[in-house]
Amino acid sequence: MILIADSGSSKCSWRLISGNGDSSAIYTSGINPFFRTTTSIYDELVLKLRPFSIVGIERIFFYGSGIINDEKASIIRLALQKLFPDARIKLYSDVVAAARSIFGTSGGIACIIGTGSNACLYDGERVVSGISPLGFILGDESSGAVLGKKLLGDYFKEVMPASLRTRFDIKYRLTREEALQRVYKMEKPNHFLASFAPFLSEEIATEYAQDLVKTSLIEFFERNVTKIAGYHLYPIGFVGSIAFYFKELVLEICSMYQLNCVSILQEPMEGLVKYHMVNNTYPEPNE
Question: In this model, does residue 71 exceed pLDDT 80?
Answer without folding.
Answer: yes
